[in-house]
């Protein structure tokens, strides 16, 4: 039995139809790829739009597009972004197998420094700091973000000085226990102990990721080459109000 010969023009049409079908399948597959979907969300959040558009609202904080755009490359993170991220760390700390975390607001240290303990003692009225595994204090000094970390086991890491007077007064106010700083190991992190930045804009991202790694008890192995990725990741995490 002889096979029926398909005219060349019909073959070409068939090939074009097949290619169109495969192209549509690829587009559909790419659109369903979680990574591609995340990248589109991140790009949209960093793109054009009303500066005052609310992009994420939680923890009594409302982040606008303008706030989110401080996570774009080479931008300085603002207080709102950092405070939101610190709240995400606290939320994760409520989960099983994670250490409990309390993070102070970025406005805490300036208030403590200028007005003393009485001005900030109500900030922790519903929190027992001495039952937290990890305490984070983000600090902005001399146009640079730094971090103080108090870790369970009375290990106190200092990247910038934080007066022990606050802890002593907090201990007496909340527990009626005199706190002796001699019980604490004080350590100022040296440049060779932690990753360093070479530009003037990534310090806020570095600080947030220091906090993230400490709260997961992970060695701090990232470098400044990871900053563009971390910035995008933080955009997605803030919009979705969950850490990856």
TrEMBL record:
<keyword id="KW-0645">Protease</keyword>
<dbReference type="Pfam" id="PF02902">
    <property type="entry name" value="Peptidase_C48"/>
</dbReference>
<keyword id="KW-0788">Thiol protease</keyword>
<dbReference type="GO" id="GO:0016926">
    <property type="term" value="P:protein desumoylation"/>
</dbReference>
<keyword id="KW-0378">Hydrolase</keyword>
<dbReference type="InterPro" id="IPR003653">
    <property type="entry name" value="Peptidase_C48_C"/>
</dbReference>
<comment type="similarity">
    <text>Belongs to the peptidase C48 family.</text>
</comment>
<dbReference type="GO" id="GO:0005634">
    <property type="term" value="C:nucleus"/>
</dbReference>
<feature type="domain" description="Ubiquitin-like protease family profile">
    <location>
        <begin position="61"/>
        <end position="214"/>
    </location>
</feature>
<dbReference type="GO" id="GO:0006508">
    <property type="term" value="P:proteolysis"/>
</dbReference>
<protein>
    <recommendedName>
        <fullName>Ubiquitin-like protease family profile domain-containing protein</fullName>
    </recommendedName>
</protein>
<dbReference type="GO" id="GO:0016929">
    <property type="term" value="F:deSUMOylase activity"/>
</dbReference>
<dbReference type="InterPro" id="IPR038765">
    <property type="entry name" value="Papain-like_cys_pep_sf"/>
</dbReference>
